[in-house]
Amino acid sequence: MRLLIALFLCCCVAFACERTHLPAKPAFYYWQTNVQLDSTERAYVQALGADRLYVKYFDIDWNYNRQEAVPLASAKFDTLTLNGIQELVPTIFITNRTLREINSNKLPQLASQLFQRMLQIHPPHFKIHEIQIDCDWSGTTRDKYFELLRLLRPSLEKRQIRLSATIRLHQIKYADQTGIPPVDKGLLMFYNMGELENWEESNSILNVETAAQYVEQLHEYPLMLDLALPIYSWGVVFRSGKFIKLVNQLSPADLAGHPHIVKITSSRFILNKSTYLKGYYFYKGDQIRLEQCHWSDLQKAHQLLSDKLATPPQYVSFYHLDSAVVQSFTYDQLTDLCVF
Amino acid sequence: MISSQIFAFFKRFRYHSLLLLTLSFPATISIGCGPVDLSFRGYSFINPNILDLSSEGAAFFLSFREIADYYKGPKAEQQVGNIEEWQQRFCEVASLEDIHAIVYDTDADDMRLLRNAMSSESFSPPYEMRGNLFVQHLIQKKCFETVDYLAFAKECEPHVTANEDPWEEPAPKNTGAMQQLIDDGRRAFRQTKSHYIRLRYAYQLIRLAHYMGDYQQALDLYDYLMPKTDNDPSIIDYWIMGHRAGALMGQGKNVEASYLYSVIFDKCPSKRASAFRSFRITTDEEWKACMLLCKTVREQAVLHAIRANMSHAKRLEEMEAMYELEPNISYLPLILVKELLELEKDLLGIDFNDQKQHNKQFHSRPRKAAGENVIELQTFVRRVVDEKKVAELGLWAIAEGYLELLAGNDYFARRTFKKARSMVQDETLKEQLAVWELALKISTYQTITEDIEKELSDIERLNRLFDKYPDFQDFTNDKLATLYRKENMPGKAIMIHYPFEAILPNPQITILNDLIEVCLRPTRNFIERKMVEKGDSTIIHDLRDAKATYYLARGKLEMAREAYTDIPRPDWNNYGIYAPYVDRINDCVHCRLPDSVLTFNRGELIEELRKKEYEARAEPNIEQAAYRYYQLGLAFYNMTYFGPTWKATDFFRSGNSMSKYQLLDAQEGVFDHYYYPLGNRENLDCSEAERHFLRVVELSTNPELIARALFMAAKCEQNEYYVNRFKGAARTYKYFDLLLEYKDSQFGQRLQKECKYFEAYVNR
Asked: What is the CATH topology of the domain spanning A18-232+293-336?
């Protein structure tokens, strides 16, 4: 009997160890049109052992003049700068309005165009194992979106390419209304979860308390999920009390000591004189909320997801790869976030 | 919310003919297109013609429909500008269409064939070109340089234009061929005598170099070629300037490039939009450097005009800067009107616009800072008026008054308008002033009296501005509705917006009484006549019938009869025929009724039920009395939402009312509905019927009748559950339990065959 109990305990420990020490592979999103890694980015990617890069190949938006879906902002590769990257995951962003406007009978054509365009852009030396479709679909566009995904499958299967889709938090919580996309796997975008346009919001990028309300049923989600975590920062600009724009990669250093910017709190600022900042013209009285991802918040997010995910993710992708962004975190910190 | 969306539909539907008549002029910002239209719902009284629509940037800065029609978009603008210039240079010998056909609808081969035809009479121009006056002129005058240039331009075209198919991969640039074309073009340039054609060659060459990405060559070509052209001013100068700016931008010289773009923005309508998009200043230092590059204060003011058009710009700050630099710059009034349009959306009629909730929800209007903005702009406009530096002082003077109106300073607005009259000479401005004064007059009524109604009637009928500016109708109606409500005239408050039919699904006694009172008046003004007159008569009997229906639905038979008193008996048949005593096991609202059932018009039905109630009470024979109660129960049941005679007590029934979300949202039986401003009341309450069926059970000893009554009472019980099931009501079976005792009666046996529900209950 003692032997059995000891054996049982050993099994428990072994399973527990396996669960907490199974690392997901790190990866990055690359969201620039010119795919050209600088030396800092390359070094970071290599040191972290991230050999997969999710690259936004192009956007698909609705052109109201042409009355058709059109590709925009196609990626241009400088493949010589991609040393160390083994795998590119073509990621295509489709606006919800495209799906809203397009006639269902045009979906086969769109699927074909999307696939061909992706192949045209893809640099030949990289094999494709997966493509990802990024779309914040809604209840009203669900059917068309899912149909588009289904239509993509035959071409992908011929080349043994897996299909994945981004999943937003509300699509987890309201899965019964938004449905489950017909893909091989999902990628949970664990960011952009707050009320961006509300000045009172503390951090719309990553707010673990808010997120907790959305992931209660995460373990029941029927798709295998990879994970995307945010490591970016931005400034949320309000003019006359109204949200007007985002300033990407705005850092505390950009604001500290600026002669025309007054600090209200650690993350809130106001302009006391009109001035240019990060390429934008700000007017006197404009307010800026600086939003960053702090290591402590990422740790909490990681803990929450460890508790809620049914199975550990195969990949943890960081959004997004940029020398200024990644330098805010050590390799070890990002490595820790891959352990589930 | 849904019902509020439909309010506008009815309002528009009612006045559709007027709206159609006046759609074309002037601009309105509140046009909607149906029940789910989410567009802004307000008013606009700004006539775009107060501005010079052909002035620099009019189309760019403003979004009036008239201006959009004036210009057909950048691409069309560019083509039109180009063709017009060809026409001018060729002394208008050919139509724009003929020139367009040659410049845009031919290829290089066509041009070569044309050249052959010019060289030798033994060759003919291509078939499509015969009859083209431009071609005839080129042949007649032996315009070889022009045709050679056009052939060259056609050769360049594939290298500098985007794919037609956006999904097609852009072909890699053939820089070798492009360079060859540049070299050929340089030779042709040198051999060409016409300075105008030289200018066009210069454009093609600089463009090729720019699109090759050889920015230095583009700039070198500019420096080499441009001094060798000596032509009259041309739009091509600005097109070339655009490519020079592009090349500078490519070299990272965005200050110099932005300066050039600002000049193009100012001077070249066909490239204004692209110059605006390309303008890129990113630091205070760059802005200062760009200002220093400007040769005049006007050019400096243009930089502010560009910035004023950036999204979410604080236009007032830019206007102030422009005014300091060049008070008479044409962009200033455009930006003023743009600001007025914004503030008008925020503030005009804010106290009485019945769609303000919609505007707040879907358009975030009024903006948080609207109150502050209107005061700041007022201060600036006052300064402009006081300083008298601008040429269009009249516009600024009346704008000051309009801003006061928008800010709610009616007294000052009136005073300012009065003062401005002497400053306004232009007829369009005079009309604009009259329109704003009329808007002020309507918006400042504080109460409603016979005289005011008459005054408004006269305005509506006689004032030509009322028809010309379509939003006056809605503006006046919204104001009147507010005043009617304030003066406790609910009927008129609603009828000013909606047709009578819109209030029937949930009639309100106060509204009906108010309207009956209007009908009874010996004289009615224009507004009242529109509300209640129908042909030679009024809707008074319809109102009385609606009132009776209201009471009948609530079981108040005496009051229902009273409402019918003044409807002449021959008219009773105008309001439907009803069968109250249909007796069925299964409810069927829309099933055809047998011819044998007793039918009544509504007046007779009311009398019949009163009589039946009296008979039931007075009948000495208990069983007879019980039977009469049973009939009353049937009648009241059939007249509910669930019965076939629902029309006796309701003017509209929606099957959708039983859906979960409708039931949860309903307030005391009233459901929101697209078309009905007061909602749709459904008669879901079966308690009156149930009361009568229970009386049967109480009085009768006849098991058959008791079984029937209990079954009907069970239906009432079930309906109550259906109505409240999403609010947590529990299903009860108290009447089925009682009915079990009568399951062996004839009716009980029949019931078990025809009502599976009861059968299941018996066998559970």
From this structure: TIM Barrel (3.20.20)
